[in-house]
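[Meeting: bench + compute handoff]

Bench side (C.D.) handed over the final construct sequence. Compute side (W.E.) agreed to return the predicted structure before the next meeting so the bench team could plan truncations. Sequence as handed over:
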Amino acid sequence: MRLWFVVVSLFVCMAVAVVWVLHKRRGGEIALRVVPPQALASPSVAVVVTPSPSPSLTSSPIASPDPSEEPSVVITPQATPAASPEGFVGTLNLIVPVAGVRREQLIDTFSEARSEGRTHDAIDIPAPAGTSVLAAADGEIIKLFHSDRGGTTIYQLSANRKLVFYYAHLQGYAPNLQEGQYAHQGDVIAYVGDTGNAGPGNFHLHFSIAILGDPKRYWEGTNINPYPLLRR
C-alpha cells in the first residue's frame, strides 16, 4: 500500500512538473506573439521629421553701391582762402622799414620759393650793411631772438596786438633796445646785415607781417604780403 502511494506521488509530481514547464514555454511563446517588435511600427508608414531652420547669426551682407551710379549729393571741399592784406589797406599805415629806401624801389618777393620747399612769405629789402632798420609802425618789441635761418631778429607787436612785424638777418640791435620796449614808427631799432641763412654779403632786411590768433604765441601767425601795404 505504501509503495503504491509513493509511486502515485512521484507520478503526480512528474505530471505537475511537466505541466509547469509546458505552461512556461507556452506562456513565453504567447508573449512573443502578442507583443512582437514588428508591431511597434507599421512598415507602410514613413515618418519624416523635417528640422526647423535655425536662425542665422550671420548678418545679411550690405549691398555695395554701384560705382556707375552717381551720388545724389556731391560735397566739394572748399579751400580756405589765404589771408589777404587788402583788409588792412587804409587802416594800417606803414613806412618802409629801411632808411633811404623809397616805396617804388620795393620788389614783391612774398611768393618766391625758398630752400626745403618753403615759400618766402616775406619781402626782402636790399640795402648796404649797417643801414638803419626802422620800426614800420608803433608797437611793443616783444622778442629779441637769434635763429639759424633768421640770424639776429626782432618780433614787434602792432599797437592793437593783432599783428606781428618780423625783422630778420640783422647786423645788430640799436643801442639799449630791449624786450618790452615800446617803439614808435620811424625809431631806429636795428641795422641791416647778412646773418642767418641770408648768405655772406647778401645784405638785406627780411620783413614779414603775420595775423595773430593769440599775442602770446607770436610765432604762430598767418603771414600776409607786406608789399601792397608798403607800396601804398
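W.E. noted at the follow-up: The longest strand covers residues 163-173. C.D. will use this when planning the next construct.
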